[in-house]
Amino acid sequence: MSIPEEIKSVPRPKGTIVKEGFGRYFVIKRTSRRVPGKATPRTVDLGTIGEIVDGKYVEIRKEPKKVTEKKKINIKTYGQVAVCHKVGEPLYDDLKEVFGEADASKLYSIAVLRVCDPDIRNRDIKLAYDTSFLSEIIPNVSLSENTICTFLRDIGLEYVSIIKFLTKRAQKFKGETQVIDGTLKNNNSIENTYSEFSRKGRLKGSRDISIVYSYDMKTKEPVLMKPYSGNMLDLRAVRDFVTTFSVSDGIIVMDKGFNSAENIQFFKSIQGLSYILPLPRNSKKLSTHSMYEEVNTVIVVDEKKILCKKKKVDDSSFLYCFRDPSIAGEEETLYLLKNDKIEAEIYEKDKQKFGTIAFETNNDLRPEEVYEAYSGRWEIETLFKMFKEILDLDTENVHSDSSVFTSEFINYLSVIIAQKIKSLFGSTVLKAKKNKKGEVVSTTSVADNYSFKQTMRYLGKIKKVRLDNKSWTLNYPEDVKYIAELGKALNV
Fold it and tell me: Measuring CA to CA, which residue among 435, 491, 463 is closest to residue 131?
């Protein structure tokens, strides 16, 4: 029913409308509010404040208070996000080139917040963002739980942008020695095809996702990453991994789990790509070519003397056998303790293998290169330790295939940032000891003094405070001298 003009013309408070009900004319307070993602604001009725009676406005209750603006947060955590952004800003720039600023800001912000708080869940990310100085460094990033869920799905569905970013990053490490390995992480969702029972998963009664990484030996950083179903064998995953990212240059160091005739032929078919593959001690190749005999060439690696033997098998295959005398002695002692009855002939044959490790490659490399490359492979185990223990990324909590891929990509970004921070801690001098002449005779780095977790926890105590609503002031915790020293050493 339309409202008569004489009723609408009665003077009443601004921002109100008149509605008819049961023969009475009520005055309603109305406002408008913006809806995220929509250009047009929506109207909102705030309640009845009066009535038109006998041609006059009669107040029933006072006007509701105006919706107050969101209170500004004037104290924000600073130390952790400052050190993350200090090392991670170039990564952020790379993300913007591929994903555009809006999506790059979300990816980078979530990755940084996962480094700062390894236990963080999607529902807590907005609060962490709002109360950290990251919201000042990269403002106006929408990170509500619903927004993140939709974002993870949409980025994963696009897929090609993630592959493009990874491929571009790989170009920076072209020609370098990389380690390829995989790890398993829990995922019991039945809504994605990645979640399957691995061999280990069947024993523990839990489904897994397999994550394959490549890792640069020099920078100690991840280069490439791709998730696979938990039941996919490493043998197959490594071929797909190399094909997906067109890996065709440098030296790839792999573990025994990647060893198969099919894989070896596959790697040999890629021109410019070299592989170093460890062989089991009972490999027929080693016995056929007498690789355990006359292992007597001395090389020095990290001031340690190692015995080696190198043999060219054909135009595209080389075998290397190394014997570490100290390890050989330990294995011989253990062998004698375990065997009461020892036959001389068998003992002499087994003794040849004590302390040995052997490799096959498709490149004529110096023995030192091969040994150093594989010896450095333990660094990827450190990376996986960082992944699972320090960053607490051992369980995937998203469900769809697309969300899994995006979430794992963000985890990968977190590990890059964390590894860069770890290197920074190792190279930053915290204390310097001087002699009487004032010359520095020894230094202690941040990493020498504190663990990674400990350092990040201390940095979390450093905040920035805004007293006049304009400028931010660095604020160290009172009476905790070592935290101030740490912040100043790291220049945060």
Answer: 463
Does one domain contain both 235 and 287? no
| Mean pLDDT over the full length of the chain | 84
Distance from C-alpha of 165 to C-alpha of 177, rounded to nearest angstrom: 20
Does residue 420 share a domain with residue 447?
Answer: no
Structure tokens at 337: 């303790």
In this predicted model, what pLDDT tens digit does every residue of 235-293 receive, in sequence order?
778 888 888 888 887 888 887 778 888 888 888 888 888 888 899 999 999 999 999 99
Query: CB neighbours of 483 closer than 8 A, spacing ≥ 6?
Result: 458, 461, 462, 476, 477
β-bridge partners, 308: 297, 322
Q: What letter represents residue 105's amino acid?
A: S
Domain that includes residue 33, residue range: 5-59
> Do 249 and 186 lie in a common domain?
yes
Question: In the predicted model, what is the mean pLDDT of residues 52-65?
Answer: 78
CB distance 209 to 404 below 8 Å: yes
Both 197 and 341 in a single domain? Answer: no
Q: From the CB of residue 139, how many other CB atoms can be counted at a distance below 10 Å?
A: 8
Closest to 50 (Cα-Cα) out of 18, 4, 22: 18
Q: What SS3 class is residue 78?
A: coil
Clarify whether residues 300 and 340 are in a common domain.
yes
Question: 92, 171, 190: which is closest to 134 by C-alpha?
Answer: 92
Cα(330)–Cα(347) distance, integer angstroms: 15
List the single range of 252-266, 408-422, 448-462 with lowest mean pLDDT: 252-266
Indicate whether 105 and 243 sit together in one domain. Answer: yes
Claim to verify: residue 79 and residue 205 sit in the same structural domain: yes
Task: Tell me the pTM.
Answer: 0.74
Number of domains in the chain: 4
Question: What CA–CA distances, in Å, run from 284 to 85, 287, 291, 317, 358?
Answer: 52, 5, 10, 15, 12
Q: Judge whether 68 lies within some domain.
A: no
Q: Are residues 411 and 449 in the same domain?
A: no
Please identify which residue in the block is written with the tokens 């100043």.
Answer: 488
